[in-house]
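FAQ: What does a ligand-bound record look like?

Like this one, built around flavin-adenine dinucleotide:
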Amino acid sequence: MKSRIQNPKPKIVVVGAGPSGASLAIRLLRENFRVVLIEREKFPRHKLCGEFISPECLAHFRELGVLDEMQAAGGERITETVFYAPDGKSVRVPSKWFNNNESGALSLSRAEMDFRLLEKAKAVGVEVLEEHSAVNLLSEKDKICGVKLRAKDGAIKEVLADLLIDATGRAGILGKMMSRKDAKAQS
Ligand SMILES: Cc1cc2nc3c(=O)[nH]c(=O)nc-3n(C[C@H](O)[C@H](O)[C@H](O)COP(=O)(O)OP(=O)(O)OC[C@H]3O[C@@H](n4cnc5c(N)ncnc54)[C@H](O)[C@@H]3O)c2cc1C
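The answer part, i.e. the structure of the complex:
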């Protein structure tokens, strides 16, 4: 592939810079891949969320090197979760039951959490393209080889990839593009 000939490190393109995409991008970069992370929004951006970060995530944040940043951004520790039944009875679940050696869960604005992860990705060397939407897949001899992007100003850009990862969340944008391509090829 063209991108491999110019640079021997495999290039991985991750589309979607939510918590999955940004975390994965950081981990892949550390594994010595070239990583491009593509996001249609400009961060920080608001997103509807309960903003409860469960205890297991704190160990993950520590590994990614963002735990201190999350707390500095206003993250509040949550030591227990209480579930209420309609009759008023309740069940208390201490966060320490999750036994992750961290003290509690965290409550933090989603805009802040995603922004801190994206900033970390940039800091470790991930190439980040914000305000770029994936609009189509690129293929060569029936193999997916990259993604076509549209920037906010309407400019079109093509990014080649040795591996393309769909981290667009529930929308599953790349998966849908792939299904459309398959359906077209079969018709
Ligand atoms: C109402 C609500 C409340 C929730 N509360 C909680 C909670 O309290 N705690 C919890 O842990 N989870 C909560 N969740 C679940 C949580 O939001 C998801 O699990 C999480 O967002 C999944 O992360 P992700 O990175 O996979 O996807 P997303 O966060 O959806 O990230 C996908 C990213 O892809 C980008 N994208 C999409 N299409 C394109 C494209 N074509 N080109 C480029 N970029 C694109 C989007 O802009 C987005 O930034 C809640 C969900 C909802 C709906």
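Follow-up question: can I read anything off the structure? Yes, for example: The radius of gyration is 20 Å.
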